[in-house]
Amino acid sequence: MEFITVNPQAKPAVALVSLNRPKELNALNLQLMSELRDAIQALDANPEVRAIVITGNEKAFAAGADIKQMAGKNTIDMLLADQFATWEAIRRCKKPLIAAVSGFALGGGCELAMTCDMIVASETAQFGQPEIKIGVIPGAGGTQRLTRAIGKAKAMELVLTGRFISAAEADRLGLVTRVVPVELCLSEALSLAAKVAEMSPLAVRLAKEAVNQTYENHLNDGLHFERKNFYMLFASDDQKEGMAAFIEKRKPQFTGR
Ligand code: CAA
After folding, report:
1. Predicted interface score ipTM higher than 0.90
2. What confidence tens digit (pLDDT) does each residue in 97-131 have?
3. Active site residue 241
4. Which of 105, 128, 131, 242 is catalytic?
5. Residue 226 placed within a domain
6. Does residue 252 fall inside a structural domain?
7. Is residue 189 included in any domain, yes or no?
8. Which of 17, 63, 115, 235 has its Cβ near the most Cβ atoms within 10 Å?
9. How far is the CA of 14 from the centre of ligand 1 (A)?
10. Which phi and psi (to 5°) does residue 161 adopt?
11. Nearest C-alpha to atom 1 of ligand 1 is from which residue?
């Protein structure tokens, strides 16, 4: 594993997976996501593990999918790469996933946190779906899960403007389970996981499944729809311009083509 570390017993029956690509603010490239999928699948199959915490570092949980890796791709490249298959596998994890978020949770980083079952945020956490600023849209569930979590009026604003929200606002809006001081974030997430790990694993599994079922069928359709629109944007000049502008550290000039 190059971009993540795994501790299968950070606490009794609680595993900890840390994203570890700090120079790039844990940008989620294809290799990191494959490693994460492999780790989650292995922990899901490990009978010693009953709950899993995913974390980043103090500066970033994750600043999104890797823009540099996507910048030159076209729609067909995106379709064939099928990068969201790894996300689907993580979503299928039967054990509870808890995100411990400090710093940036943006784009795919916010989507990864929302794919988890609970989010413990530190006071420094910032959430957002800034894809619009680089000429695309969320592709890993942001339009669906954010809207479900905080409602249309707020989600629409965040998805259309790319504004970041603080941990306090995320708490007010119901996006996160709780907010704690940064130095307590990981220990709080591990304690929450340990509490869940004391329960019957079978009841926990079926409870998670039942809560998710409240919108599972609708979510499947929504994810599919979002993904097609995300891929379609890779046929646009604005996607090329938006991502190039990010890499070149300048303001993009969007033309609507
Ligand atoms: N992809 C690739 N590299 C990234 C990245 C990303 N998502 N986010 C940050 N980086 C890189 C930067 O390019 C920079 O690298 P260099 O040192 O080589 O220039 C390094 O990480 C540090 O970043 P900054 O210098 O930009 O740090 P900052 O503190 O000034 O700004 C930030 C932090 C506001 C998070 C800014 O980095 C940023 O806006 N990042 C991009 C956020 C974003 O747009 N995310 C959505 C990605 S698309 C997506 O996720 C699609 C999807 O739905 C799956």
Report:
1. yes
2. 999 999 999 999 999 999 999 999 999 999 999 99
3. no
4. 131
5. no
6. no
7. yes
8. 63
9. 30
10. -110, -20
11. 66
Total domains in the chain come to 1
Please give the pLDDT value at position 52. 98
What is the rounded average pLDDT for all residues in the chain? Answer: 97
Q: How far apart are CA 249 and CA 83, in angstroms?
A: 26
The per-residue DSSP string of 61-85 comes to EE--B-HHHHTT--HHHHHHHTTHH
Kindly state the DSSP code that residue 25 receives in the 8-state scheme. T
Q: Which ligand 1 atom sits closest to the C-alpha of 162?
A: 44
Given the DSSP bridges, would you call strands 104-106 and 126-128 parallel, antiparallel or unpaired? parallel
CA 12/CA 10 separation, integer angstroms: 7
Who lines ligand 1 at CB under 6 A? 24-25, 27, 63-68, 104, 106-108, 111, 130-131, 134, 138-140, 142
Contact 233, 139 (CB under 8 A): no
Return the residue whose CA atom lies nearest to atom 19 of ligand 1: 247
CB atoms within 10 A of CB 63: 25
pLDDT for res 216: 83
Question: Catalytic one among 111, 128, 197, 245?
Answer: 111
When pLDDT is cut at 50, 70 and 90, the band that residue 182 belongs to is: very high
Burial class (CB in 10 A: 0-12, 13-18, 19+), 57: middle
Instruction: Give dist(CA 92, CA 115) in Å, integer.
Output: 10
What are the residues facing 165 on neighbouring strands?
Answer: 127
Distance CA(161)–CA(118), nearest Å, equals 25
Q: In the numeric block, which tokens belong to residue 61?
A: 């949980």
Does residue 235 sit within a domain?
no
> What is the model's pTM?
0.97
User: What's the CATH code of the domain at 69?
Assistant: 3.90.226.10
> Which domain, by its residues, includes 171?
4-202
